[in-house]
Write a structure and sequence with these properties.
The chain contains eight helices and eight strands; from the N terminus they run ααααββββαββαββαα. With about 280 residues, it is α+β, with helices and mostly antiparallel strands. It has three domains: about 100 residues, Helix Hairpins (Orthogonal Bundle); about 50 residues, SH3 type barrels; about 80 residues, 2-Layer Sandwich (Alpha-Beta Plaits), CATH 3.30.70.100. The strands form two sheets. A five-stranded antiparallel sheet has the order 4-3-2-1-5. The chain has a three-stranded antiparallel sheet with strand order 6-8-7, covered by helices on one side. A hairpin with a 4-residue loop joins strand 3 and strand 4. The longest helix has about 50 residues.
């Protein structure tokens, strides 16, 4: 099958028309991309410097920087596509459909993502704080956008999803400079309570780590099965809480021994009763 000269000429003219239409768009798109990329890099550099100057959480800074970077490059891509002739509505629809598909596939991760935003934004705790959450107690080692890393006191790393962490109770033990420690101790029935209280108060008044205001507090709290139960409450700096608690327990044992105050252990009194019938059989 031979192609006529007229067909070749028509094809050639059509190619020339397309070249005049497409080539300028390609050139303009390349120029737009290069200029846009330079502007995006400049904006990102300025944003990075701004974030570094602010005293924000590093994880939050990284998230904000990454989010802005994605938005800027998507905008640049849509601009290039529009110059090349792609319908803007179709381009937006493609990104929307892709976002929906990703969202459905990553529902759990999106929950953690939202939790990470809340934690990084409202700052219920920071790196270095000691918290109690999700059944674990430890120091915050790292806060990421999806997970929070907690180091327990026996040096185990617990990785907690931010979704569950943001929607549960959190006890932050590092926000206050002072804390109260409480020691429960029992003394034997018949003990002079006034004397026991004086011994306990003296122990903690002589400890320089214990705060004078509020003053150490001692009270009788319960008549137990085997003991009179006393409670000791003292205020200390947060860093001295456990040293004062453990040293105080040792001192209580030592000073009670010196004062002759007994710390009882659970006891049972058993009364043996002989039945009357059994006695009559033995003694008719």
């Amino acid at each position: 099958m031979e192609i006529s000269q007229e067909t070749v000429n028509a094809f050639y003219e059509r190619a020339i028309d397309l070249a005049y239409l497409i080539v300028p768009r390609i050139i303009f798109a390349v120029i737009f991309y290069l200029i846009g990329k330079f502007i995006v890099k400049s904006l990102l550099k300025g944003l990075r410097n701004l974030l570094e100057k602010r005293e924000n959480n590093p994880s939050l800074n990284d998230f904000l920087f990454g989010f802005v970077k994605i938005v800027l490059y998507i905008t640049l891509f849509m601009g290039v596509a529009s110059i090349l002739g792609a319908p803007l509505g179709s381009t937006v629809a493609i990104f929307g459909a892709a976002g929906l598909a990703i969202g459905l596939a990553l529902q759990g991760s999106l929950s953690n993502f939202a939790g990470g935003i809340l934690i990084l934004g409202f700052k219920p705790f920071q790196v270095g704080d000691v918290i109690v959450a999700q059944g674990h107690t430890g120091k915050i080692a790292k806060i990421q956008i999806l997970y929070t890393h907690l180091m327990t006191f026996d040096n185990r790393e617990v990785i907690i999803p931010n979704g569950s962490l943001a929607n549960s109770d959190i006890i932050n033990m590092s926000t206050q400079e002072t804390r109260r420690t409480e020691i429960n101790v029992g003394v034997a029935y018949g003990t002079n309570i006034k004397k026991a209280k004086e011994v306990l108060v003296k122990i903690f008044e002589n400890d320089p780590r214990v705060l004078k205001d509020p003053a150490p507090f001692v009270a009788l709290t319960n008549f137990g099965d085997s003991s009179l139960d006393l409670v000791v409450r003292v205020w200390v700096k947060a860093s001295d809480l456990w040293p004062v608690h453990f040293d105080g327990m040792e001192s209580i044992n030592t000073e009670f021994e010196k004062a002759g105050i007994e710390i009882p252990f659970p006891q049972r009194v058993v009364h043996q009763i002989k039945e009357k019938a059994a006695q009559e059989e033995l003694n008719p």
